[in-house]
Known about the structure:
alpha/beta; Rossmann fold; five-stranded parallel sheet
Amino acid sequence: MPKILLAEDDPTQRMILRECIVDASFEVVVASDGAGALAKASATGPDLILLDVVMPKMTGFAVCETLRRNDRFSGTPILLMTSFDDEASIDRAFAAGATEFLTKPIN
Length: 107
């Protein structure tokens, strides 16, 4: 079963996204902050990573940049999620190594 790492600090958003992912027949690994996302990515080797941009301890941008410096995650799709939809945020996401940028709320 494919594994998705979901890093989201908002408990409600995390619960909703987790349920959607599980319903789509994926295994879900959850982190509530950036540092936890890095640790869980290293421990589990997910097939896809969903990162909230604004999180405690480390932003999604920083997590993405850190993961991209590790050859293990060079081919792993990383999707950054945020309510920011300005051009600077989108450019920053792709500069950090994001595969895609999603605006919240995610339906």
